């Protein structure tokens, strides 16, 4: 590993994106009730000890990195990753996203931390849509009901609006905006969404935002299973290298899962590979084994493994 750490982390970053293109060719698409490809944009913070990682400034006494990610909700594959110091604002990274790489008609889903009228306008100009939530202190003025409004369960309102100051809005965002108020029965609270999409129904807008939870699950999974909270080196290059290698490992897992049509979860696949890493068997054969079979094989092959 020390030899790997001395390599420039950009080597692994480039390898990640090369593997990503291969992965995208074979990943199956989750089905939605509409054709617009949904993407979630968010970040997660990786806390670091400032005295050991003094280059990762966050607060006066704390260090941290931020992992900013654009996740394809249909494939659960991250298609864009940016790693910054913890103090970098989410919207700063979001505004640098290369929109031209996304399919026309795609929907970007993000939370209330990404409110920026100028950037929203660029999203629309790129032929894309967005769905976001509002902050509680936002000035929103209803100008009328959505023309194609239909009665749907949970939908409290479906309106066209002016967001913030009238003059400032039309200078930065000269198009219509839509506000959907939706009652979340499970959590017993009202949710308010903003979007530039006037084609989907109000209930579908709520469904799009609900699917943003995929990126929260993704962050939780990689922190628990890819060992990106404890680092083998303290330099910036060492930390970045370890994170990119972890993400490469995730792509390889996804590639194996989809290429072999492995029916279990990625977590189960991770456990299977960990338990059978030193077995002298074909990967395809190993993926068909159950927990009891793996345990029996470990006992059978343990003498050979101890020889090495």
The gist of it:
The protein is an alpha+beta fold and 308 residues long.
Characterization of the model:
Among the domains are: 156 residues, no CATH class; 45 residues, no CATH class. It has 11 helices and 9 strands. Strands 3-2-1-4-5-9-8-7-6 form a 9-stranded mixed sheet, sandwiched between helices. Helix 2 packs parallel to helix 8.
**Topology as H/E string?**
HHEEEHEHEEEHEEHHHHHH
Major sheet attributes: 9 strands, mixed
Number of strands: 9
Number of helices: 11
User: Into which percentage range does the β-strand content fall?
Assistant: 15-25%
* Average of the residue pLDDT scores: 84
Helical content band: 25-40%
The first-to-last residue Cα distance is 20 Å
As residue ranges, the low-confidence spans are: 303-308
Structural category is alpha+beta
Shape: globular
- Strand arrangement within the widest β-sheet reads 3-2-1-4-5-9-8-7-6
What is the CA-based Rg, rounded?
A: 23 Å
What's the structural blueprint in terms of helices and strands?
Elements: H1 2-5, H2 10-26, E1 38-48, E2 63-72, E3 77-85, H3 90-94, E4 107-109, H4 117-125, E5 129-133, E6 140-145, E7 155-163, H5 166-172, E8 177-184, E9 189-195, H6 202-210, H7 213-225, H8 236-260, H9 266-276, H10 283-287, H11 291-307
Parallel strand pairs: 1-4, 4-5
Antiparallel strand pairs: 1-2, 2-3, 5-9, 6-7, 7-8, 8-9
Helix pairs in contact: 2-8
Write a concise keyword list for the protein shown above.
nine-stranded mixed beta sheet, 308 residues, alpha+beta
């Amino acid at each position: 590993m020390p030899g790997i750490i001395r390599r420039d982390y950009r080597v692994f970053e480039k390898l990640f994106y090369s593997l990503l293109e291969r992965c995208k060719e074979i990943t199956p698409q989750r089905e939605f009730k509409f054709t617009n490809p949904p993407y979630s944009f968010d970040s997660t913070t990786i806390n670091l000890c400032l005295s050991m990682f003094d280059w990762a400034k966050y607060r006066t006494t704390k260090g941290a990195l931020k992992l900013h990610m654009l996740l394809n909700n249909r494939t659960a594959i991250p298609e864009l990753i940016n790693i910054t110091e913890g103090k970098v604002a989410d919207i700063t990274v979001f505004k640098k996203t290369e929109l031209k790489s996304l399919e026309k008609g795609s929907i970007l889903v993000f939370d209330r931390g990404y409110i920026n009228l100028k950037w929203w306008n660029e999203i629309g100009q790129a032929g894309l849509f967005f769905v976001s939530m509002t902050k509680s202190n936002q000035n929103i003025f209803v100008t009328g009901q959505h023309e194609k409004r239909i009665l749907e369960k949970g939908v409290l309102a479906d309106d066209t609006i002016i967001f913030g100051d009238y003059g400032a809005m039309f200078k930065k965002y000269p198009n219509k905006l839509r506000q959907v108020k939706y009652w979340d029965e499970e959590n017993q609270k009202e949710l308010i969404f903003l979007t530039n999409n006037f084609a989907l129904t109000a209930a579908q807008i709520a469904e799009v935002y609900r699917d943003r939870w995929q990126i929260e699950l993704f962050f939780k999974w990689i922190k628990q299973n890819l060992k990106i909270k404890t680092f083998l080196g303290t330099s910036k290059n060492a930390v970045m290298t370890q994170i990119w290698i972890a993400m490469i490992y995730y792509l390889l897992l996804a590639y194996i899962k989809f290429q072999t049509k492995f029916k279990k979860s990625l977590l189960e696949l991770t456990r299977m590979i960990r338990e059978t890493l030193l077995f002298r068997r074909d990967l395809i054969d190993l993926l068909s084994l159950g927990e009891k079979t793996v345990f029996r094989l470990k006992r059978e092959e343990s003498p050979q493994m101890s020889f090495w």
